[in-house]
Every structure is written in C-alpha cells, then in structure tokens.
Amino acid sequence: MLKDSQVDLCGRTDFTRTAPLLARDEAFSFACAGCGGCCRGREDIVLSGFDLWRIAARLRLPPRTVARAFCRGSIGRVSRLPVLRLAPLKEEHGNCPFLTGNHCAIHDAEPLVCALYPLAQEITKDGQVSYFLQSTQCGGQVIAARVGDYLTRYDVPAREATDVRWAQVCMELEDTVERLDALFEPVFARRMQEKLWQALYYRYDFAKEYRPQLEENLLWLDGELKKLEGMQMRHSTIEKSDR
C-alpha cells in the first residue's frame, strides 16, 4: 500500500525505474483480462490539475467539490507541493471510486495514469517525454502494439503539451517553495500552501479551457507569493526592532 511519504513532485512515486525507455515506433506487449483489476487496491492514481479539471468537466462539478468527494490530498515530502490522488473506497475493498463493475465510469475523462497503463511517462525539465512499460500481474489476452499507436488510441498525444507544461510548472515551483519554506514562519507557510492548492487545482472553471486558466493562475500565484514574502519580511523586521 502506497504511503503519503512515497508520493511527491507532480505525483512522482518513490521508485527507481528499471524498465528501458521505449521509442515511439517500438513494439511492446502485455496481457489483459479486461477485469478491472488494475483499478482495484490502488492508492497511486495521482491527478494533475488538468486531470482534475477534466473530471470536473465530465461530472459538471467544481474541481474542489470533485477533490473533496473522490480524492485525498497531501503535501510532497521533498517537493512540499500539493499532491492529489484518487481515494480508494474502503467499503469496496480499496477500489477506485469511479470503478463500476469492471469498467471506468469516467472513461472519457480518465486520468493520464490510467490512460497510459501499462505504459508510464517520464518528463524532463527541458520537456522531453519518454515512456516505459510497467510490469503487470494480469493474465488474459496478449495485446501487442507500437507505443505511438497505443498512445494515439487513448488520445495521449493530444494532451501531451499540457502534461509537459504541468510537469515543468511543478519542477519550477519546487525550487520556489523550497526557498520560501526556509524563509516563512508556519503561519505564512500555511498560507503559501493554500495559494498553491488554489493555483494548481481549485481555481478553475470546468466550463472554460484549462490552459489559459493555468497560465492566469500562475501569474496570480506569483503575485500572491510575493505578497506573502513581503509580509514575512516586514514581520521579521518588526520582531527585530522589538528586541
């Protein structure tokens, strides 16, 4: 079972990749019984802000409402960034909250992690995207495909630029948050986390396009963090003068 401490930056889990990277024209194969087993007993279905927005649009609910109803939030142990993942249903033996029978109730808005499976994705700071095959425990029919064809089948290329942007935003924010965490007293650190949750996940309208809202939120976040930094500096100055 995955612990909160194992989930960090942009949903990156605490593991070392041993599988080789696959070229997009390279073939791979895996067995699938179509049983929905990959949706059961999982606590590592991490959502990006784009994933949450897509689910919110599918359900026609505000992102915060979706997060409260179906997700679990935590703070990355190293990155100190918000992490949101689907919360398994205890009464359903740890199944994904959107698993109905053996099928996904939000298949047309499924998270990237689910769309890729059994492939997984790596994104570098300079925006290079790579894929690799995860090990599966499934039996059933053997499915063979080329990486590029498999990705296209699940509309992954159509969202890749947005996923790259999300990953780069998280990597950039990690450096900013590390610096501010060292500067802020607890009250300002808590306010910073509130602003991060807003900018990355909640301050979105599901009826509007995601990318323009993300860019607008990042500008808003930059201003809010500068305000908090100024407040902390003034508070520190006052404390020094009172000594």
Describe the 3D structure:
By secondary structure, the protein is α+β, with helices and mostly antiparallel strands. The chain is built from seven helices and ten strands. It has helices spanning 49-59, 63-70, 112-116, 147-153, 156-183, 186-202, 210-241, and strands at residues 21-22, 27-32, 46-47, 71-75, 82-86, 99-100, 103-104, 119-123, 129-133, 141-146. The protein has a three-stranded antiparallel beta sheet. Strands 3-5-4 form a three-stranded antiparallel beta sheet. It has a two-stranded antiparallel ribbon with strand order 2-10. A hairpin with a 5-residue loop joins strand 8 and strand 9. The longest helix is centred in the C-terminal third of the chain and has 32 residues, at 210-241. The radius of gyration is 20 Å and the shape is elongated. The relative contact order is 0.16. The model has no long low-confidence stretch (mean pLDDT 89).
